[in-house]
Amino acid sequence: MTRNSFHSFDRFGNIALVKFSRDVKIKDKKEFANKLLNENPAMRTVLEKVGGFKGRLRKQETKYLLGEKTKEVLYKENGCVFRFNIDKTYFSPRLSNERKEIAGLIKKGEEVLVMFAGVAPFPIVIARNSKAEKIFSVEINKEASKYAEMNIELNKVRNRVEIFQGDVKRIADKFHKNGKKFDVIVMPRPQLKESFLHEAFILSKKNTRIYYYDFCGMEEKEKIIEKIKIEAKKNRKKIKILKTKIAGEIAPYKIRFRVDFVVL
């Protein structure tokens, strides 16, 4: 992210998404957009962020400023390429290093479940950067799932990534009824009150590793760990915390927090 006194922007491949403070005039917005395009030849479009991500579908609102009139992104990271609509689907370039790190933790022959998978960046980066046997990608947003199908073709991982469109609870219940368990469960959760840890626990077995993401204040990390332990007890599971880390700051004094743990 690049900052100055009144704006910041994230780059999504060919698109720059800029957030301005309220007092910036349209003339100054266009001037900044023009400067971005001139200084970055590969950047084709500048959009303004006018609303944050909302609801379980994690959609946001943007407004066209300058350049090619499109909201379709072509984005590359970790040896992978992704297409998605910036308004209709959720994608965070700031999680690029997280995706690479998680992929590096997957062992040969493991089956991986990714909840809240969006346009499938975690599943595809795992598929391209590990020797996982198969990755199961679950996402409730229909539009995101369509792009996920497109992306697994673009990245040539159709034989190792399977897309499941629908609510995590419903799909987890189907897996559970069929006796399906996973070696690894990745949970890059949106900011929802519900933890979905119950769904993770019913799909876990001995030695299943779970990578759980949550959001909290800088001083509230222990509360997240305690929540996981309480949920494990409710589901009659014993766990061991392997690692915790701050996986990014999302607002002043508010962080994305990752907890790695194993089911014993």
- C-alpha Rg (nearest Å): 19 Å
Uncertain runs: 1-5
Largest sheet: 7 strands, mixed
Q: Classify the helix fraction into a percent range.
A: 25-40%
Element order, helices and strands?
Answer: EEEHEEEEHEHEHEHEHEHEE
Tally of discrete structural domains: 2
How large is the share of residues in beta strands? 35-45%
Straight-line distance between termini: 40 Å
User: Average pLDDT, to the nearest integer?
Assistant: 92
Going by CATH, the homologous superfamily of the largest domain would be Vaccinia Virus protein VP39
Count every helix, treating DSSP H or I runs of 4 or more residues as helices: 7
Total strand segments? 14
Reported CATH architecture of the largest domain: 3-Layer(aba) Sandwich
Strands ordered across the widest β-sheet = 10-9-8-11-12-14-13
Shape: globular
Query: How would you classify the helix and strand content by structural class?
Result: alpha/beta
* CATH class assignment of the largest domain: Alpha Beta
CATH topology of the largest domain: Rossmann fold
Give me the secondary-structure topology:
Layout (H helix, E strand, L loop, with lengths): L1 E2 L3 E6 L2 E6 L5 H14 L5 E10 L4 E9 L4 E6 L2 E6 L10 H10 L5 E4 L6 H9 L4 E6 L2 H13 L6 E5 L2 H10 L4 E6 L9 H6 L1 E14 L3 H14 L4 E13 L2 E10 L1
Parallel strand pairs: 3-4, 8-9, 8-11, 9-10, 11-12
Antiparallel strand pairs: 1-2, 2-3, 4-5, 6-7, 12-14, 13-14
Helix pairs in contact: 2-3
